[in-house]
Write a structure and sequence with these properties.
77 residues; alpha+beta; two-stranded parallel ribbon; 2 helices
C-alpha cells in the first residue's frame, strides 16, 4: 500500500521551514536510488520516494528566487 505519510511529512515540513528562511537557506530531503529503476519488490517505496523527488524539484523551482535551495540526497536502499 502507498505510504502517503512520507509524502505528506516532506511536503508540510518543507512548506513550514521555508517560511522561516527569510534570508535564504537550504532544505535537504532524503530520497532513494530506487526511483531510478523499476523493481516490483519495492513498488510502494519507489512511489513515495518518487513523490519526494517531485516535491523537491517543484519546491526548488518555487523557492529558488527567494535564495532558498531545495535538494534531495538519494541514498541506497
Amino acid at each position: 500500500m502507498f505510504d502517503g505519510i512520507k509524502c505528506q511529512s516532506v511536503f508540510f515540513v518543507t512548506q513550514e521551514s521555508s517560511s522561516h528562511l527569510n534570508d535564504g537557506g537550504r532544505i535537504i530531503n532524503l530520497s532513494s536510488f530506487v526511483t531510478c529503476s523499476a523493481s516490483p519488490n519495492v513498488f510502494t517505496y519507489s512511489i513515495s520516494k518518487g513523490a519526494i523527488d517531485t516535491f523537491t524539484f517543484l519546491f526548488a523551482t518555487q523557492l529558488g528566487p527567494c535564495n532558498i535551495r531545495v535538494n534531495a540526497v538519494l541514498i541506497p536502499k
